[in-house]
Design goal:
Blueprint (H helix, E strand, L loop, with lengths): L1 H12 L2 H17 L5 H22 L17 H21 L4 H18 L14 H20 L4 H25 L11 H5 L1 H21 L8 H15 L7 H17 L3
Length: 270
């Protein structure tokens, strides 16, 4: 049993679970919109999530709980090499599918800069240290990688792309909230995360409203069929995990929140 716990912890703490889940979600979205290279878009997101999350942890170790030690121990060379290889792979795949657009070049550079600024000081301050900005930047960056880049790159109408990305911004914000609840006493009080500002019960209520809005929007604008039970189960489980979130929950609990993105991605394949 201890062996399997170590394997589970490695998969979650090494960012492989969230990377694979995010990649599969991107795959489901790409297939839903009949994009030409869904597997490449999924691979790009998988590689970017792994690289960015791993490098952020190396650069900003103070932002993580001491109870969650790095799976790499004190070594940094191995994860840095893996991250750089992943970044290179994502760049090569991105070039292979990219249909040149000045707006996409600008947006990609902009969000790349946000990822850098998130943990590395710029103008003397990290982006995550600016009050109230942490969750917004994270959800926006994920929305860009999962939705905006592939859809605009493949010529999906701008209005449809923005509407769908807005719905996903609601979803992503909602599933990030449990992690802010977990870290409510780890995050610096000056960061003003949502649970720090409005307390945990209201944070859960906010997440509930966001998930309801996400569901209603998907059905109302016919991105999802009313009888798509996989979609409803995926959202309902995310809601349950949100409601049962506490600071005492372990890594497996939060790994399941990430894994549920795969179930949502599956629903978009139907």
């Amino acid at each position: 049993m201890q062996f399997f716990r170590r394997i589970g912890y490695f998969l979650v703490a090494s960012n492989l679970v969230v990377s694979f889940s995010g990649g599969f979600l991107a795959f489901g979205i790409a297939r839903h919109f009949s994009l030409e290279h869904p597997l490449r878009y999924a691979s790009i997101l998988f590689l970017l999530i792994f690289a960015v999350y791993t490098l952020q942890r190396i650069v900003d170790q103070s932002g993580f709980s001491a109870s969650e030690p790095s799976v790499w121990g004190n070594a940094t060379a191995i994860p840095v090499v893996f991250s750089l290889v992943a970044l290179l792979g994502a760049f090569i795949l991105g070039i292979s599918v990219f249909h040149f657009s000045p707006s996409l070049v600008f947006l990609s550079v902009f969000f790349s800069f946000l990822c850098y600024w998130y943990t590395v000081p710029f103008f003397g301050q990290k982006l995550r240290e600016i009050p109230g900005i942490k969750i917004v930047v994270t959800a926006m960056t994920w929305s860009y990688g999962c939705v905006v880049f592939p859809l605009i790159n493949e010529g999906i109408p701008l209005q449809e792309t923005l509407l769908f990305s807005l719905l996903f911004f609601l979803y992503l914000t909602a599933i990030i909230l449990p992690f802010d609840i977990r870290d409510v006493h780890i995050d610096d009080v000056h960061h003003s995360t949502v649970p720090q500002r409005i307390d945990i019960p209201l944070t859960k209520l906010l997440g509930t409203v966001l998930l309801i809005g996400f569901t209603a929007g998907n059905i109302g604008y016919r991105f999802i069929a009313v009888d798509n039970w996989i979609f409803h189960i995926a959202v309902a489980l995310q809601l349950l995990f949100l409601l049962f979130t506490s600071e005492k929950r372990g890594y497996f609990f939060f790994g399941c929140i990430d894994l549920l993105m795969m179930l949502l991605g599956w629903s978009y394949l139907l």
